Amino acid sequence: MMAWTQLIILAFLAHASFQDSAVYSPPLHKSPAQKCVPITMHSCQDLEYNLTVYPNLLNHQNEKDAEEAIRQFQPLMKVKCSEDIKLFLCTIYAPVCTVLEQPIQPCRHLCQSARDGCETLMNKFGFHWPEQLECNLFPVDGICVGENKSSTSAPPARSHNHPAELECPSLMKTPFHLNGAFLQLNAGKIAECSLPCSADAHVPTFFDARTRRWLRLWTGLCAVACFFGSLFTICTFLIDLNTRFKYPVRPILYMALCYFGLSVIYMIGVFGDDRFACGEHASGQSQLVNQGVDKFPCSALAVAHYFFTLASCVWWVVLCLAWFLTATRHWGFEFIESMWLHFHALAWGLPGILSIVVLITNSFDGDVFTGICSVGNLRGDALFWYLVVPIGSALTVGLVLLMMGIFSMVRIRKYIKLQQVDVEKLINKIEKLMITGFSAIYVLATAAFAGILFYQSRQTPFWIETWYGQRCASAQRADFGFHRAAKECAPLNTDSAPPEILLFVMKYLLHLVVGVTCAIWVMSVKTMGSYKRCWNRVVRGRTIVATADDELMPMGGGPVRPGHHQQIRGIHAQR
C-alpha cells in the first residue's frame, strides 16, 4: 500500500504544479442562455449531483477547460487524503446547477476539511495549498454545499442554523495520519486527530492530574497483588503438577499464567509513565495519545494485553468443558488429559488470530490512566466488538457448561442417597472442586468487567464530544489550537455526564482480581505440605514420601481412590 501511494505521489510531483491561471471569482448570475449540462468529466463522477453550469467558479468557460485544470488534483483524490477533497474540488470546477440564479459555492467548512486532510501531505513534498482555493473565499453560512453523503438528490444546501463540520485543533493533529488516527464523537469522526495526554487545568481530559495519578497508583497496587497471587499459583502448580493438579483443574494454571502476564503489562505502564501510551505532536509541542501501529512499544503492549485477556477467557471455557466431561459425560481424568493438545490449540490459537486482526485494523490506542496501550480506549465500536463480544461469549459458554455439570451432580447425589453407595464422599469432593469461591468470583468479576466495558463502549463518543465542546467553547480556545469562530463549534451534548472515577477503579480491579483468586483457591493444608516437601528436597536434600491425604486434589477433603470413577460409571450403567 505504501509503495503504491509513493508511486502516486511521484506522479503528483511530476505533473502537478497547482499554478492554475484561473482566479476564483464570486458566482455570476446565470444568463437565459446558460443551461444545466450533464457532468461527463471523469474526476467528478458518482457525486450527489449530475448537472453543472459554466462558466464555473474559476471562470472556466466549458467542461474541457475545467477537466484539464482539475486533472492536477487527481493524485490527491486517488490517495483520499481527505474524504471531502473530491466533493470540494468538483463544486469548484463543476458547480451544482439548480434553479437558483447562480451556482452554489462550497461551504468554508467543506474547504477546511479538504485542506486539513491534504495540506500536510502536500507540504511534505514542497507544495502549498493553492491561493485560488483559500477557504476564506467561501461562505461560512447561507446557501452552500457542505456535506458529503451518498444520495440521489442534489447536495444539501447548508443554512446558518446547520452546525459546522468538526475541526481538529492544531495541537491535537496527529503525525500518523496514514494509520487512520481519528477521534470518534457522537456527531461524527474527526480525522487525523487524537486526545492530548496532559491534563491541563482548564478543561482536563476526563479527570484532573491529581485524580489520574491516584488512579494510576490504584492500578499499580492491583497489578502488584495480581502479580504475586498468580506467581504463587504458578509455583504451587509446578511443584506438585503430577499428583494434585491434573485435569479438570489444570486450566487454572494457564489462567494464572495469563493474569501473571497482564499484571506485568500493567506494571510496565505504571512505571513507564506515558512513554508507551503517548507520542509527540507533529510539531513537537505536546504529546498525544498513540493510535494504531505507529509506535512499536505501544503496539507490543496492546497485542500482549489483548492476547492474555482473551486467553484467560478461553481457558475458563476449557476449565468448564473439562468439568462438564468429568461430571456429566463421566470421562476419566486421564482421558481428558490426553486432549491437552486440542485444549492448547484452542486457548492460545484463537486469541492469537484475533490479536492479528486487531493489529491489522489498528483498533488499539493509548490508555492515559494506566500508561499502557490496549483496545478501544478511544473507539467504542472496537471496544465492543473486540472485547465485550468475545468476553461475553466465553463467559456464557463456560457458565452453561458449568451449570450442566452441577445439574448432573445433583442428580447423581439423589440416586446415591437412595442406593446407599459409599462413593458419596467422592461426589462431595468433585462438587467442592468446582462449586467453590473461585467459580463464583470469576463469574461475578468477569461479568461485571464485561458490563463496564459495554457501558464504556456506548458512552465514550459522548464523553469525548462533551470534552471537545467544552474546550471549543472555552475562553482559552485559541490556546487549545482552535482557529475557527466559536459559533462553528459543535453544540454541547448536555445529556452526557463525564465519566465517574469509580467506573475506572472497578474496571481495573475486576480485570486483575482473578489473579488473586487463583492464589486463594490453591491455599490449603496440602499446599503447605507440598512446599514443605519441596523445601526438604531442594534445600536439605531429603525426600519425604507423600501421604494419601497429600495426593488429594485441592478442596477435596479426603483421599480419592482410582476405583471410585469406575463405581460412578457403574451406577449410571445400572440406571
Automatic annotation (TrEMBL):
Keyword check for Transmembrane, yes or no: yes
Answer yes or no on keyword Amino-acid biosynthesis. no
Cysteine disulfide links: C36-C97, C44-C90, C111-C135
Q: Where in the cell is it found?
A: Membrane
Q: Name one Pfam family in it.
A: Frizzled
Name recorded for this polypeptide: Frizzled-1
Residue ranges constituting the FZ domain according to the UniProt record? 31-147
How is this protein positioned relative to the membrane? Multi-pass membrane protein
Any one Gene Ontology cellular component term annotated for this protein: plasma membrane
Classification via CDD domains: 7tmF_Frizzled_SMO (cd13951)
Species of origin reads Mesorhabditis spiculigera
**What are the record keywords, sorted?**
Developmental protein, Disulfide bond, Membrane, Receptor, Transmembrane, Transmembrane helix
Which family, according to the similarity comment? Belongs to the G-protein coupled receptor Fz/Smo family.
> From which domain of life does this come?
Eukaryota
